[in-house]
Write a structure and sequence with these properties.
Helix content: 40-55%
Radius of gyration: 24 Å
Number of helices: 27
Structural class: alpha+beta
Shape: globular
Strand content: 15-25%
Length: 622
Amino acid sequence: MCGIAGFVGRGDQADLLAMTRALQHRGPDDEGFHVDPELRVFLGHRRLAIRDIAGGRQPMWNASGTVCVVYNGEIYNHETLRAELEAKGHVFVSSHSDTEVLVHGYAEWGTGLAARLNGMFAFAVLDTARRRLYLARDRFGEKPLYYAQRQGLFAFASELSALVRHRDIPALPSLPTLRKLFAYGYLPAPHALYEGTAKLPGGHFMTVDLVSLETSVTAYWRFVIEPDEDMARRGEAALAEELRELLVTATERRLVSDVGIGIFLSGGLDSSMVLAAAARRRAAREIDTFTIGFTEPSYDESAFARTVADHVGSRHHERVLGLDAARDLIPSVLSRLDEPSADASILPTHMLSAFAREQVTVALSGDGGDELFAGYDPFVALKPAVLYAAVVPAPVHAALRVMAERLPRSSRNMSLDFKVRRTLMGLSQPEAAWAPAWMAPIDPEAIGELFAEPVRPEDLFSEAMELWESGEERTRVDRLLQFFTTFYLQDDILAKVDRASMMCSLETRAVFLDNDVVEFCRRLPSRFKYRNGRRKHLLKKALEPLLPRAIIERKKKGFGIPLAAWMRQVPDTPPFDPVPGIRPAWMRQAWQDHRAGRADHRLALWTWLSLQHTLRAAGSGH
């Protein structure tokens, strides 16, 4: 895992050095640079050495000096691709560097390279012969890649905070993007926080002409659910067996490393699957698993993780903390988040990453299981929501929302009153906006008040609504699956895990996002994912030979913290640095109402706190 940065056009080596220094946490082991004064190309790399420690330095060139790459990620099928390229006459210098596969792969396949890769990656290839830069991001956007365009300048970086270290890229918040932040709780690609910046979406590549600086962005892959009824005719037992073998193989691919490797273990279904699958390919006693727990029972999962570890026989590491330890991390974590988010589980995720990093450099995770197999609460809510919307008149709905606001407020993790209010909030929107509105930090109807101008749901949630409406031939469950995999997984979950782990220089690998597993899920009819109220139906069936029934059927529990309670006390004095376009009076009132117990604004306040720390950190870097 590494950090990359570079630019074409205006700027000098001081800009490049500032950009790469901002990525040192992503690559503490080494650095490398390439500067071409004639082409005005500047490339930088920070390395976290994982594979081929001696032979994997970057930037890496081909023998003729025409193709160069800076790269962040892991290519799990690099040995297969290497053999194919060697058969075509390519001569490799390194012993087993996956980076070198990108160099020769681009020389052989050009812009078709990204589509051939099974892995997580963000890279930039300099093609001096064609005077072109080729940048690509993995299918789901596990690895970040930001870019900016100005007159006479194109720049890119692994993190937005590195991008704005270039003197000609100011950290000025974009007003339309801020609205998206408070609507979704994250920024859906290609939106990025600052004016003139963007995220390359997962599954896309772009080319940059080094002379004209003209750019072109192309999708090489999209997650599109296309149910295959021929799969269903094979029978549930056969499908479960195939899925189990795909997951075991995907896990095996991610166990390859030249440094210490472990597994995040929560005791939930997805991380337990990763451990059970790993034990099919390695002696269980040689597998390190890592769990953090909390002394407060409502937020503690450590006993479940211990049960799984004991069942499989892994070498288990556990640390139980008071929630104050997580609360105390708020300023330091949010100031390094890079891009604001409503997801407060960044705190325990970072704590788990830091704990694992004490002993290993790589950790496997179960991320992606909920999105691919319908693991979230909205899948349960969908059918009742359709019925509710059909039979409940608007005045009755409005009255129910008023009544819901009078329910006693609980600070417990995913309490009933919290779920009821958010469900009704989402149902106030068009059906195509239900999914993002259910998870929005702020009631979409109040966003206009925050920004002092009316905002339509069609503008706030344009990406999600367009995706929902483009899939009318698919079931609602399939359309909801596409929302979670396309937006929430990429720009919330994976972004959170990347930032939380890279803050402490830990590489994470998501088993469920293996190409073969995803292709299987993409074609699997939705009734095998969600059936009669049972989430992850086929996944649970596939894991029956590997895990105890109590773990398989255990009720889902998120990686939570008592955010509602914290926001009544932390920070002592909420920050109100001015943000262009936002009414500070609305946010002040939200803090007052929350702290007085008159309202539950936990997600809005956390988003605001996250934004404030992000902007302060960006300002201190210039």
